[in-house]
Amino acid sequence: MSERIFNFSAGPAVLPESVLEEASQGVREFAGSGMSLLELSHRGKYYEAVHTEAENRLLSIMGLSPETHAALFLQGGASGQFAMLPMNFLTKDAVADYVVSGDWGAKALKEAKIFGDAREAASSKADRYAYIPKTFTQTPGAKYVHITTNNTIEGTEYFALPSTDAPLVTDASSDFLALERDWSKFAFLYAGAQKNVGPAGLVVVVASREFLAQARTDIPTIFAYKTHVDSHSLYNTPPAFSIYVLGLVLKWIEEQGGLPGIERRNRQKAAVIYSALDELSSFYEPAVTVKEDRSLMNVTWRLRNAELEADFLAEAKANKLDGLKGHRSVGGFRASIYNAFPTAGCQALADLLRDFAQRKG
Ligand SMILES: *Cc1c(COP(=O)(O)O)cnc(C)c1O
Question: Using a 6 Å CB cutoff, which residues line ligand 1?
Answer without folding.
Answer: 11, 77-79, 104, 148, 152, 171, 173-174, 192, 195, 203
